Amino acid sequence: MQPEPGPAGGAERRAAHGHAAQEALDLATVPGGRALQRLTRALALVGGMLLLAAVAVTLVSVTGRYTLNAPVPGDYELVEIICAVAVFLFFPFTHSVGGNITAEFFTSGLPRRWRRMMDIVHDTIFALLAALLTWRLGHGLADKFANGDSTILIQIPYWWAYSFAVACLALLTVVCVLRIVAGIVALRG
Fold first, then answer.
1. Contact present, 77 and 153 (Cβ < 8 Å)
2. Distance between CA atoms of residues 136 and 100, nearest Å
3. Out of 110, 144, 176, 184, which residue is the most buried by the measure of CB atoms under 10 Å away?
4. Interatomic CA distance for residues 30 and 4, integer angstroms
5. Does the structure show a pLDDT above 90 at 4?
6. pLDDT of residue 41
7. pLDDT tens per residue, range 14-25
8. Distant-in-sequence, close-in-space partners of 46: CB < 8 Å, separation ≥ 6
9. Do the Cβ atoms of 24 and 179 come closer than 8 Å?
10. What torsion, rounded to 10 degrees, do the Cα atoms 39, 45, 47, 53 define?
11. What are phi and psi of 98, to 5 degrees?
12. Is the dihedral of CA 155, 140, 163, 38 positive or negative?
């Protein structure tokens, strides 16, 4: 019988089975890491609740459509925005616990030190990409806000969803930077 996953989202269990060191990094070892873990976990829980809300909207709309001929107006728009926001809320937590999919075929046999160095390189590249996406989506947010773009049926302003995306990508960038620091600390330790 396997032990229950610990607070790092099962990182101990994955690391014990020989998986890459990326999953075993502990952000609590760096300043602000523990608070960041709590924040990202809370955002992921909110994302999960939003997905449940999307399911509820879809259920009510489909039931209303087929039983009362009265679907929820703008249900597609609402579910689309809810799911988009939920996905961005998951990104920081997923990376903070090493939950991203990795291909370990070539690296699983390497010494732990080499895997940690590769994880630092990976996190550096990921931080740069997350920062780039934050910057570009920030421009999109400013554009959507200035133009007043909104959904067609229920007039939800698009900038609302963009603001969550920008904030979560900025947080993902911070997570990547803290993972770099945690990786360096682990290399020295």
1. yes
2. 23
3. 176
4. 25
5. no
6. 96
7. 444 444 444 467
8. 89
9. no
10. -150
11. 70, 35
12. positive
